[in-house]
Amino acid sequence: MEFSCPFLMEMVFSIPHHTCLGAAWKVANISEGSKVVIFGLGTVGLSVAQGAKMRGASQIIGVDMMQEKCEKAKAFGVTDFLNPKDTDEPIPQVINRLTGGGADYAFECIGDTGMVTTALQSCCDGWGLTVTLGVPKQKPEVTAHFGLLLNGRTLTGSLFGGWKPKSEIPSLVEMYLKKEIKLDDLITHTLPFKDINTAFDLMKNGTCLRCVIHMPEIEGFPMAGN
Ligand SMILES: NC(=O)c1ccc[n+]([C@@H]2O[C@H](COP(=O)([O-])OP(=O)(O)OC[C@H]3O[C@@H](n4cnc5c(N)ncnc54)[C@H](O)[C@@H]3O)[C@@H](O)[C@H]2O)c1
């Protein structure tokens, strides 16, 4: 890269952030004034929210089981936070009510194929588009009533956001350097290597978005970025 970007930010750019901006901008091509629902508000979901906000979405509903995600989500553009634990109503029904007929775009950012079905059900008839980003650890098959597709909804996926790394990533880094996109807030913790188990705990209990681990310097092998 011809310009100077902090090494840590290059790392964050390497996957989660550009993937999700790409999912919002290139894959879904979110249009101004549209209604968006995002399932899962980790780094992936928050970056999709940022992409949707920058595209001028009028409503961005974030769904997450962890109440702690609410505040950060609002900072990334989420307009309505929904915790499935707070309602007995099926989530697609809640989304349908909040959006007045279903979302124009739904993003699955958890890695749960059951949620892919929920996302598809939360879209509107006619043109509702579901983009699946999560990578499931179990049950890879997606099941859905054929009528959802027959009624004009589309299901697609996004891996790495559809960017051409060599020609397009530098322009994203430039946007970050000009403070047009928010990235620093995705790094919530910085720990030395000896505390790596704490980092895993933080990741598992959901208090952490991205944690940077500092490796001890070994003589003769200077760390990248130094
Ligand atoms: N497609 C790609 O290019 C790409 C790139 C990076 C990561 N991923 C995948 O995206 C997914 C998300 O990554 P992340 O780093 O944001 O993960 P994360 O664990 O930080 O975030 C997931 C969020 O989903 C929430 N969640 C879990 N189960 C839920 C449920 N049933 N209902 C509502 N919310 C629920 C969690 O509370 C958490 O906030 C992972 O599967 C990851 O492997 C895909």
Provide keyphrases for this structure.
binds nicotinamide-adenine-dinucleotide, NAD(P)-bd_dom_sf, alpha/beta, 8 strands, two-stranded parallel ribbon, 6-stranded parallel beta sheet, Rossmann fold, 226 residues
The biggest beta sheet reads: 6 strands, parallel
Instruction: Provide the CATH superfamily of the domain at 17-162.
Output: NAD(P)-binding Rossmann-like Domain
Helix/strand class: alpha/beta
What is the top-level CATH class of the domain at 17-162?
A: Alpha Beta
Subunit structure: Homodimer.
Pfam families: ADH_zinc_N (PF00107)
Protein name: Alcohol dehydrogenase-like C-terminal domain-containing protein
InterPro entries: ADH-like_C, GroES-like_sf, NAD(P)-bd_dom_sf
What does this structure look like?
With 226 residues, the chain is α/β, with parallel strands linked by helices. It has a domain at 17-162: 3-Layer(aba) Sandwich (Rossmann fold), CATH 3.40.50. Helices cover 38% and strands 16% of the residues. It has helices at residues 7-27, 43-54, 69-75, 91-99, 113-122, 146-150, 165-177, 196-204, and strands at residues 35-39, 59-63, 80-82, 105-108, 129-132, 154-157, 187-192, 210-214. The strands form two sheets. The chain has a six-stranded parallel sheet with strand order 3-2-1-4-5-6, sandwiched between helices. Strands 7-8 form a two-stranded parallel ribbon. Helix 2 links the parallel strand 1 (35-39) and strand 2 (59-63). The chain is globular, with a radius of gyration of 18 Å. 36% of the residues are buried. The model has no long low-confidence stretch (mean pLDDT 89). The structure holds nicotinamide-adenine-dinucleotide. The site of nicotinamide-adenine-dinucleotide has 28 residues, from helix 1 and helix 2.
